[in-house]
Amino acid sequence: MIDVAVSTDTPLRDYGGILGVVEFGGQSRNPDLTAGYPTVGIAMREQREQPVREVWTSASEVTSGARDGIVYGHDGTHLFGTFRLPGAEAYREATRSVYRRTMTLLHDLGYPHLVRMWNHIADINHTNAGGLEVYRDFCQGRAEGLEEAGTDMSAGLPAATGIGSRGDGVVVYFIAERSGAPLHFENPRQVPAHRYPREYGPRSPSFARATLLPSSEKLFLSGTASIIGHRSTHVGDLDGQCDTTLENIRLLLASVSEKTGGKVEMDSFTMLKAYVRHESDVPHVRRRLREEVGPLVPLELFNVDICRSELLLEIEGVLTMKFSDEVRGGGS
Ligand SMILES: C=C(O[C@@H]1C=C(C(=O)O)C=C[C@H]1O)C(=O)O
């Protein structure tokens, strides 16, 4: 069983088997196995702030390794992997290549099903030397790499986040799975991202809106923002964007509940992360989220740029789904 916890203070020895650790601190660092498990650093906070650790754990024995620039830990059912691309003028080619190598590695190790991916892209809204926005350049390489690996763009894409960072380069981490059980979902009032029209870049972003891992009853919610159809809404209006983003999440959760017969609601988050473009908006977004999910849900906010320059915030998380015994047993 895979699990995740986010904390600033729990000593790592207090966790069981560790699949991987992500340190959101002042610097982006290449992943390594120095601690015996994959650790990667992503510049998501100011230097003076305490880093936050996201720790992926397993109840089973974990093996770790590295190949082709990808560092990983796996337990026979799930795999945590991570890589970093150094800062560059353009990312298309390096992204294409590393996504393709990732899919080959997952195939070779026997974890061919991507569940969830996080892509942290420095200077995400900057225009590169070729005149293309960094995010769009990244999306092009990602789509090409996945396509070359034979990924089914309409049914096989995992939940994901594509977000800014304060460091340089691109840091990616992901969860993959062995059995093929993950179920991917779209949002009823959003165009699937892989079908966004050309106006958003040469290749569409490759992700689903949510992925369910039935074995652990975890629902991975992709980065969600104030987008209806394919258009950003409430440009320049923080509360309007909060309202639309939260409504998008509510609608997605209702749709997943209906499709699976499980129960998942706004207070089902076991981990909630929000990205806020302007530092001065952070306290307000924190208040809005607390009102929505209550006092107990672990919540972290990060002041970074978001994939479209008009978006002011984005929300993602992991939720626990509840299934009745009847649904679990296939209704028999
Ligand atoms: C906010 C959106 O996209 C963001 C970018 C993603 C990506 O490129 O992987 C995934 C989810 C969000 O972090 C959106 O298109 O709705």
From TrEMBL:
NCBIfam families: chori_FkbO_Hyg5 (TIGR04444)
Organism of derivation: Amycolatopsis azurea DSM 43854
Name of the protein this chain belongs to: Chorismatase FkbO/Hyg5-like N-terminal domain-containing protein
Superkingdom of source: Bacteria
Domain Chorismatase FkbO/Hyg5-like N-terminal, residue spans: 54-176
SUPFAM superfamilies, alphabetized: YjgF-like (SSF55298)
